[in-house]
């Protein structure tokens, strides 16, 4: 239980060290005011990137622009952003918004699948809307909870997980590569889906602590840090959406069998 209590910070009495309290949720003393200001900039930029991503997804729904080109454009924008000097702030912010817009367009085909679950005159009907909103809210709640947990934990407490997560990401890559060459199974796809969700949720914690630690040492590049968190958010959202789509398909199949 000591590890659990350290996850939420120190409390006033020895008895409360086995859990958490409301006071522990307000304990940001380990984060200096400068770093707190930096985190506000990072999360503000992240919110702007999410809005741009939503615009990109909407543009795909209107004009069907999402695909390989937008994916390559997104990767190119990321490389361009990372190679741009930090003093060109306006250019880097524009590149981040372009990355988010292209990423949203690339996710657009998956959103089309969600819309087609309950098509009626080409409109976004309640079932599809429920799936999309639930996936986004679930992702936002998970992202917020794990980010706050990383902020409340002791400095560098979870950075050691970075090596394990990198190994997990490598496993995902090789599994995907092998399945593309030799063909995959439903069980393998399900493992990749849930294991990938676990890996990227872990990256939310590690990346948040890494950003805080870098900021303590003077790295206040909020654009790059927002990009890091945005990629984590997008990866978690895609996997949650796929899981919800799979569950919706199973429910529809069960309803059809009952009707027959």
UniProtKB/TrEMBL annotation:
One of its GO terms (cellular component) is membrane. Keywords: Membrane, Transmembrane, Transmembrane helix. The chain crosses the membrane at residues 42-59, 66-83, 95-115, 127-152, 158-175, 187-206, 226-245. It is found in: Membrane. Its main location: membrane. It comes from the Eukaryota. It is a multi-pass membrane protein. InterPro entries: Bax_inhibitor_1-related (IPR006214). Belongs to the BI1 family. This is Bax inhibitor 1. It comes from Rhododendron griersonianum.
């Amino acid at each position: 239980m000591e590890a659990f209590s350290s996850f939420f910070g120190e409390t006033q009495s020895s008895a409360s060290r086995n859990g958490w309290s409301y006071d522990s949720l307000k304990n940001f003393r380990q984060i200096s005011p400068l770093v707190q200001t930096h985190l506000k900039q990072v999360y503000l930029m992240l919110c702007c990137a999410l809005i741009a991503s939503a615009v990109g997804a909407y543009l795909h729904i209107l004009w069907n622009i999402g695909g390989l080109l937008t994916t390559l454009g997104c990767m190119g924008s990321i490389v361009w952003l990372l190679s741009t000097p930090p003093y060109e702030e306006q250019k880097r912010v524009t590149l981040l918004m372009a990355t988010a817009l292209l990423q949203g367009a690339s996710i657009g085909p998956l959103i089309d699948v969600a819309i087609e679950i309950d098509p009626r005159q080409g409109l976004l009907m309640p079932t599809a809307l429920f799936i999309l909103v639930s996936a986004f809210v679930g992702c936002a709640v998970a992202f917020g909870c794990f980010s706050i947990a990383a902020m409340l934990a002791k400095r560098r407490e979870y950075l050691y997980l970075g090596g394990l997560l990198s190994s997990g990401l490598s496993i995902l890559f090789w599994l995907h590569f092998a399945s593309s060459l030799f063909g995959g199974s439903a069980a393998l796809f399900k493992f990749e889906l849930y294991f990938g969700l676990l890996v990227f949720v872990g990256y939310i914690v590690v990346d948040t602590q890494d950003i805080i630690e870098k900021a303590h040492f003077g790295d206040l590049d909020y654009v790059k840090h927002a990009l890091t968190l945005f990629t984590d958010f997008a990866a978690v959202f895609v996997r949650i959406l796929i899981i919800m789509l799979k569950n919706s398909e199973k429910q529809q199949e069960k309803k059809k069998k009952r009707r027959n």
